[in-house]
Specification:
With 371 residues, the chain is α/β, with parallel strands linked by helices. Helix content is 40%, strand content 9%. The two termini are 23 Å apart.
Length: 371
């Protein structure tokens, strides 16, 4: 997520289906062609991360999971009262997934960056800025990554929406005011981000590098959750500073990259990064060679006010090359609306079927490697 939120104080898939998903075939399987194959609605659901309000998942969310129409769930502070409580919720969600025709683990995620941005109590206690200022920053980043991984895995989560790889430009700006950046030096951010990613993923929890290509130049008032943000940096500056930490994270095998909702005129003057095929396809995948899973920031963000409904935003993000769509409004209806829009766009030919299969394949491969 681009801003801090409230802080609380069948792994099995048939070889044929997984191969089909990963292959990115140009013709989607349908129930009519093969009763065992996923429906369009189920395929659309494999790209949706749901959210809900309160401490208890609603029946509608459990139904979507049982029907094979959900890739995962994101948790916020309001969903968690204690480790035992959220552990019980995760057990309930996993039991629902066990009844799904898609026998892959759910992606169960939260923002456990450290410092001020933690949904679970405990590790990592240090913020990224504190890690960057430590006597041995690499050791501190490694310890934070290990702590985050063990903490999340301990309650049954398997994805962390961290680390932040933004390189802050000015003290007290949007990222630095919450101590969410390791440093104003891209080399330092690269080294510490790589250490965190490596350690956390060794603990069995997938890491997410964010917010590509970078929010480090945003002023304190430039919040993509609240409204449109334009970051007028040159292409050379974006590549030499903001994007500079990503090659190290990619080389370390980071599983996911979250793309920001800011607009970068030097790359695409008309669309926020997460809706831009230029940013996602050419810059992140083409220039930097990232082959893992892309994930949007919150689909309800104020920066997307000019881009229509939840469904329209979901389709635009898919067209841009985003794999997972983060429906973080704490309402399961939002995820269902996004899935419906993807289903209709797929059936109507608005979304390329080969590209859709490739996205589902990347997500399925990620899920198959997690618990």
């Amino acid at each position: 997520m681009s801003t801090p939120r409230t802080r609380i104080r069948g792994r099995r898939l048939t070889v044929g289906l997984l191969s089909l998903l990963v292959a990115g075939l140009s013709i989607l399987p349908t129930a009519q062609a093969d009763p065992a194959a996923p429906s369009w609605r189920q395929l659309a659901g494999q790209r949706i991360v749901y959210s809900y309000s309160g401490l208890t998942p609603p029946d509608s969310l459990l139904r979507h999971i049982r029907a094979g129409e959900a890739a995962g769930v994101i948790f916020f502070g309001e969903n968690i009262s204690s480790e035992s409580q959220i552990g019980a919720v995760i057990t309930q969600l996993r039991q629902a997934q066990a009844q799904s025709p898609i026998h892959l683990p759910l992606l169960l995620m939260t923002d456990q960056e450290g410092g001020l941005v933690r949904r679970l109590p405990g590790e990592p206690v240090l913020s990224e800025k504190q890690i960057g200022q430590a006597a041995d920053p690499v050791a501190a980043a490694t310890a934070a990554g290990t702590g985050a991984g063990r903490n999340l895995a301990g309650v049954g989560m398997n994805v962390n929406l961290g680390p932040v790889l933004d390189v802050y430009y000015q003290a007290g700006n949007f990222i630095d005011q919450y101590q969410r950046s390791y440093s104003n030096d891209p080399g330092t951010v690269a080294a510490l981000g790589r250490a965190f990613v490596t350690a956390q993923q060794a603990a069995g929890v997938a890491a997410t590098a964010k917010h590509f290509p970078g929010l480090g130049s945003a002023t304190a008032a430039q919040d993509t959750d609240a409204g449109p943000v334009t970051l007028a940096l040159s292409r050379s500056q974006l590549r030499s500073v903001d994007e500079a930490p990503y090659p190290a994270a990619i080389a370390a095998g980071v599983k996911l990259v979250m793309v920001s909702w800011a607009t970068y005129p030097a790359l695409d003057p008309n669309r926020p990064a997460g809706l831009s095929p230029t940013v996602v396809g050419r810059e992140l995948r083409g220039r930097l060679g990232f082959t893992g899973v892309t994930v949007t920031d919150a689909l309800e963000a104020g920066s997307l006010g000019a881009f229509g409904t939840t469904g329209q935003r979901a389709v635009a993000a898919a067209l841009a090359g985003m794999d997972l769509l983060l429906c973080a409004a704490r309402d399961a209806t939002q995820g269902a609306d996004a899935a419906t829009a993807l289903t209709n766009a797929l059936a109507g030919g608005q979304l390329d079927r080969a590209a859709f299969h490739a996205a589902v394949g990347r997500i399925s491969a990620l899920r198959a490697g997690l618990r």
